[in-house]
Amino acid sequence: MKLVFAIVQDEDSPRLITALMDEGLGVTKLASTGGFLKSGNTTLLVGLDDDKLDLCLGLIEKTCKNRRQIATSQMPLSGAGTMYAPYPIEVTVGGATVFVLSVDQFVKY
Ligand code: 2BA
User: Is residue 109 part of a domain?
Assistant: First the structure.
């Protein structure tokens, strides 16, 4: 058995959850926050049998899109000691960041 952690953009999560559930996969949705952009994203947990892993990964790949976002970084001001000026940078987020873990034990009480 595997446990898939999929970090996806909030905009993609409703369609992905529907697609996973339509295939009979169990999903848990967690509200999460990216460390770099410090904005909300969605982490989905999917526990599944090994033979469903490719199906799950395929649905994630098909559903989750790359998007460009503007983030704010800091530039040191020359001659101003430790002062910094904010400036915008563009980053590409997604489609999805996915971790697949092997599950030792799965119990439901
Ligand atoms: P964030 O940490 O908010 O990162 C959003 C996007 O900012 C990243 O997209 C990447 O394009 C960019 N980025 C991140 N760190 C950067 C840096 N030090 N310098 C320049 N650009 C940077 P993704 O790579 O698609 O990641 C989307 C979200 O997935 C991340 O949101 C984070 O929540 C999660 N994530 C990504 N890699 C991870 C990892 N190794 N472990 C845990 N979570 C991860």
Answer: no
Ligand 1 atom with minimal separation from the 38 CA = 3
Residue 11 in 3-state DSSP? helix
Q: Which domain holds residue 65?
A: 2-77+85-102
Residue-wise pLDDT tens digits, 58-99: 999 999 999 998 888 887 787 767 788 888 889 999 899 999
- Two tokens at 61? 């790949």
Measured in angstroms, how far is the CA atom of residue 27 from the centroid of ligand 1?
22
Q: pTM of the prediction?
A: 0.91
Q: What is the pLDDT of residue 80?
A: 66
For position 51, which CATH number holds? 3.30.70.120
The Cα 66–Cα 72 span in angstroms is 19
